[in-house]
Amino acid sequence: MNLLDSLIEKAKANKQRIVLPEGTEKRTLTAADQLIRDNVAEIIMLGNREEIQALAQQLGLEHTNKATIIDPKNHERKELYANLLFELRKKKGMTIEQAEKLVEDPLFLACLMIKNGDADGEIAGAQNTTGDVLRPALQIIKTSPGVKVVSGAFLMFTHTPQYGENGTLLFADCAVMPNPTAEELASIAVASAETMCSLVGVEPKIAMLSFSTKGSAKHEMVDKIQEATKLVKEISPALLIDGELQADAALVESVGSSKAPGSPIAGKANVLVFPSLEAGNIGYKLVQRLGNAEAVGPVLQGMAAPVNDLSRGCSVDDIYKMVAITANQAIGMKQNK
What is the CATH number of the domain that holds 194? Predict the structure, then answer.
């Protein structure tokens, strides 16, 4: 059984309530139908009931009638959620009138449901931008204690078993932070370690990537990676981490032993932390396209509850897998409380 199949089976064994704010989006609705059919999660769809039912009939879907459907503009808990949003944001100047309007936005409603304990996780982004998905999540759910930033990781399933964990690696940050500081990079590394543990179930071996290995180049960008590595060791001394490392030194044992002798990570890394969003986003797409790897994500890291963002070019299969991953994040967070 491969890792994704294992995650799906784990989700089935401990069903979580996953809310899909884009309930009238065709790919989302089709994925929801398959998830309900396969008993992967309890699905909550947000949107107009008649529109969802008509679209399901048009698409020939047979299982969406088993989903919980909530119309953001008309449901029995609307006042409760509006009051919750008002209480959370009144110190930021929000009025009850503004809260009553925002609670009709499915992205805000989904986060309020999670905050109130009525759902365990959320998937959105097939129709909405990352900024639109993240804004209510950061305002309502917020980040985990001690986490400075939210970041986006990709699980990379490659055809090169000699690298990573039998070919599986985690790349971060590939989705959120354009130019993280040393402190933010350290936070991304710690969050990535937690993701590797909870989803892949192996000990993370973290490489802080750079164009330099162990001082082979001098530059302020290298200094940033060195400082980030030092901070991680102070924050989480038990983590296996090293930096700065070039990508080949991080992944190839012969190169690692030559460029960074004595390093516990060189040549053995399974988590790659990139120095910037530019590098991370380019890196994962090159591996995906040129190496024919499967890239699953972005998995948003650092949130107090699982909220995951989809690419607007996502497939039904992408949504299905991300729901399974979100369910596993929720299971892991509950176990760690």
Answer: 3.40.50.10750
pLDDT at 284: 96
134 within domain boundaries: yes
- How many domains, the chain? 2
Q: Which domain holds residue 313?
A: 3-142+305-336
pLDDT tens, position by position, 74-132? 999 999 999 999 999 999 999 999 999 999 999 999 999 999 999 999 999 999 988 89
Between the CA of residue 235 and those of 39, 143, 229, 293, what are the distances in Å? 39, 17, 10, 33
* Residue 223 belongs to some domain of the structure: yes
pLDDT of residue 238: 94
CATH number for 43: 3.40.50.10950
Q: Which residues contact 66 (CB under 8 A, 6 or more apart)?
A: 36, 43
Same-domain check for residues 80 and 167 = no
SS3 309: strand
Q: Please name which of 281, 187, 176, 196 lies closest in space to residue 227, comparing C-alpha atoms.
A: 187
User: What distance in Å separates the CA atoms of residue 96 and residue 103, rounded to the nearest whole number?
Assistant: 10
Residue 182 CB neighbours (<10 A): 18
Give tens-digit pLDDT for 238-287: 999 999 999 999 999 999 999 999 999 999 999 999 999 999 999 999 99
Residue 333's pLDDT is what?
A: 86
Burial of residue 129 (number of CB atoms within 10 Å: 0-12, 13-18, 19+): exposed
pTM: 0.88
Query: Does residue 300 fall inside a structural domain?
Result: no
Q: Tell me how far the alpha carbon of residue 273 is from its chain's centroid.
A: 15
- In a shared domain, residues 57 and 165: no
Mean pLDDT of all residues belonging to the chain:
94
Lowest mean pLDDT among 32-46, 268-282, 287-301: 287-301
pLDDT at 184: 96
CB 205 within 8 A of CB 232: no
Residues 166 and 275 in one domain: yes
In-domain check, residue 130:
yes
Q: Has residue 1 got a pLDDT over 60?
A: no
Statement to judge: residues 134 and 225 lie in one domain? no
